[in-house]
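Example 3.2
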Amino acid sequence: MNLAQALLMTGDWDAAEAELVQAADGDGLADLEYLACCRTWVAALRGDTPAAQAILAGVSDLRASEDPQDQATIAVAEALIGAARHQPAAALRCARAVLDRAGALAISGEYLRWAWPLAARAAHDLADTNATAGLLALLDGYRPGQLAPMQRAERDLAAARFTAADDGADAGAAFTAAVAGLRERSTPYHLAHGLLDRAEYLGQLGDDEAAGAAIGEARGIAQRLGCQPLLDRADTIQPASARAAAS
């Protein structure tokens, strides 16, 4: 499971899935519910919600547990399923359930590393500025060294989206810096989402060439990951010139 988590973070999702399948089917660990939740994460990230839901439906002991780590494991899986199903309200609710356990779990631990970006993106999709402000304040309450590098990078990206939504003059520079931070400190999956955020902003400015380049890089990452939700998102934010040519 630690190996699979590292492979997810570094962008080798095929290898992560293969390790989990081997553990479940080859090593006889299919009944291990933590392993099932990890398999749910991979399926949901790739957009295979029927498989994710089917795997998670077999998890009962963790769901009944009052242990914060057990509850967080389930909540991250449900948040990822909500995101894959384009249900930001569900994704935000489940991701917040993980963040509410920050006192019991390390803020930089893997559950909260994944939950905070999920919550921030869901809040943005819902145009919920209060939720976004609260999520930014949560991370700002910690010293930088207490946060995982990807959390600091995601915090900068969320702040850039927040600035752009408020027509801030510094949004362009904020997006450039945020994407650079994601490239250095986050995962390929989160970088791709950041590139698409920047592409949306550039498209609004009419800079179709730069937007198209960002979309192209994000699509390449999505194809390598086998991440259908990212590919779908890239298709929805084609620059105006590309849409016109296609029609």
